[in-house]
Inverse folding.
């Protein structure tokens, strides 16, 4: 569990209600990874939605060789978005290009919340779309 205050400043959570942010904070944890860690692998179960707090992560296709980098995830960005999109498998791998600190949100618990709260589901999907469009 983390403090809801940690999530509140980030645009991804800005349009959520206090109750929704508190509920998400209950299913979230902070985690650190050293440089070169693999945070998740392509084609594995998408168990976590992540918010980048510090550092940088490269998203890449495991099968694509040296030029397979898709984008860099910087502080404030969300990644692991397949945790909210069926069939809940990561479509790319994530490698820390420097030491990173993230918020890990339990994907299964978040999906259960969206099933019970259709408004939350709509807002999250809208915010996921905006986050992916903003990548470069
Ligand atoms: C994925 O979730 O499928 C890969 C990482 C991302 O695009 O956020």
């Amino acid at each position: 569990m983390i403090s809801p205050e940690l999530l509140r400043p980030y645009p991804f959570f800005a349009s959520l209600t206090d109750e929704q942010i508190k509920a998400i904070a209950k299913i979230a944890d902070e985690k650190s990874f050293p440089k070169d860690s693999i945070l998740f692998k392509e084609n594995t179960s998408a168990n976590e939605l992540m918010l980048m707090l510090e550092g940088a992560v490269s998203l890449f296709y495991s099968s694509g060789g040296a030029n397979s980098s898709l984008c860099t995830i910087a502080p404030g960005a969300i990644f692991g978005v397949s945790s909210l999109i069926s069939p809940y498998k990561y479509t790319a791998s994530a490698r820390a290009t420097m030491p990173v600190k993230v918020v890990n949100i339990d994907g299964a618990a978040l999906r259960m919340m969206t099933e019970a709260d259709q408004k939350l589901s709509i807002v999250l999907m809208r915010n996921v779309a905006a986050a992916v469009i903003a990548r470069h």
